[in-house]
Amino acid sequence: MILSDIRDYLKQRNQCTLSDIALHFDTDADAARGMLDIWIRKGKVEKSYVTASCGTSCQACDPAATEVYIWCENTNKLKVEVPAPGNCTHS
To answer: Could you give the CA distance from residue 69 to residue 21 in angstroms, rounded to a whole number?
Structure first.
C-alpha cells in the first residue's frame, strides 16, 4: 500500500470507512490511518464520523467502522451517508 493507491481508491469511492480501506489493502487500521493522515495534512482528505457522537460516548462500535474518510480535492464534494454499525445506539 502506497499513498497513490489510497488516493486512487478514495477518488474512485469519494468516501469510505477506515475499515473498508484496511480490508481493501489487507492491512491493519492503524497502518491505513497513518497513510490517511498524510493526505489529511496535504488537505486532500477529510476525516469524519458516522454520527456526531461517535468516538465520544458509548465506545461500543469499532472505531475503524465509524471513521469516514472523504476525498476532497475538488470543492463540489458530495457526502453520502454511511450507515452506522449494527450495534450503534446513537444512529
So the answer is: 9
Query: In this predicted structure, what is the pLDDT of residue 88?
Result: 55
Which amino acid belongs to residue 64?
Answer: A
Instruction: Let me know: does 91 contact 83? Beta carbons within 8 Å.
Output: yes
- Indicate the domain borders of the chain: 3-71
Read off φ and ψ for residue 17, nearest 5 degrees.
-80, 160
Cell of 29: 487500521
Check residue 59 and give its pLDDT.
63
Give the residue carrying C-alpha cell 475503524: 64
The residue among 40, 62, 37, 42 whose CA lies nearest residue 50 is 62
Indicate the pairing of strand 45-49 with strand 67-71. antiparallel
Query: Which pTM value belongs to this model?
Result: 0.71
What's the CATH number for 3-71? 1.10.10.10
pLDDT in tens, 28-79: 999 999 999 999 999 999 998 876 655 566 666 666 778 899 999 764 444 5
